[in-house]
Structure formats: C-alpha cells, structure tokens
Amino acid sequence: MIVLQLDISEDRTLERLKTCSWWPNLKKDVAEYCQTCDRCQKANRDGGNKFVMTIQIQEPKSLWETACMDWVTALPPGGERSYNACLVSVDRCSKTPMFLPFHKDDTAMDTAIMMWNKVISHTGIFQNIISDRDPKFTSALWTNLHNQFGKKLSI
C-alpha cells in the first residue's frame, strides 16, 4: 500500500503497482482509490480555465516602482487596537517587504490612508500594483489617487 501513497496520478500508481503485485480488478481498485484519495483530488482538480491570458510584467527600474500586495486575514487579534489582518507589500526590485496591521473590515479609504502615511510617503507612489484584484485596490479611490499624480494604475 505504500506505493499508493507515493504517487498522485492514477496511471502512475497503476503502473507502479503492476511492477510489484497483481490482483483481480486491480485497475478498478486503483481508480476507486484515486477517486477518494485527498491528495489525488487536490492534484487532479479541475481548475476551470486551463488557459488564461497573461500580461508580461516589466522588470522595475527603480525601488518601489512596482509593488506586490496581498492581504493576510483571519489572524488572531493583536496589538493595542486588536488588529486581525495584515497588508503585505513587497517591492519587486529589492524584494523588501512591508507589513501593515489592519482590521479585516477596513475600507479602501482606510487602506489608502494607512498606505499613504506608512508607505507611499517614504517610497513614492507606485507605478504598478500587482495584486489579486482586491476591491480595496481596484476601487475608484486608487484610480483617482494615481490620476492625481499622473500615474497609470495597472493592477
């Protein structure tokens, strides 16, 4: 049975088992096992669209020109204000991270104010933000902020 735990592909599992053992309905048993195996299901799940249009991201020429941002949520409350989320911003040029404490129900305005006070005031406004299209970054607020500085927001 160790063979079944090593592989995540039904075909590869079957081939491996055939080299060291045989029993009636081997193929059927392997298929049933792989249909219920948690690891096999995660590896073979249908992710929907197989082909996604990608955009080539230019290498940044200067520090904090491009930032990658994402939220870490559902954290245990911490600090004086019981923050339960964290915004992680990483400069693509230097790979320098910044971690900002938030509450998971903070608005786009709260995010922009904190970013302005803690990050943008030191780094300058980003040319590009790479994120998972969170509404806190795609809102009209961020677009208008970039327009005010003559930058194009590309998320």
Automatic annotation (TrEMBL):
SUPFAM superfamilies reported for this sequence: Ribonuclease H-like
Integrase zinc-binding domain span: 11-45
Protein name according to UniProt: Integrase zinc-binding domain-containing protein
A Pfam family the protein falls into: Integrase_H2C2
GO molecular function: nucleic acid binding
Taxonomy, superkingdom: Eukaryota
InterPro entries per UniProt: Integrase_H2C2, Retrovirus_Pol_polyprotein, RNaseH-like_sf, RNaseH_sf
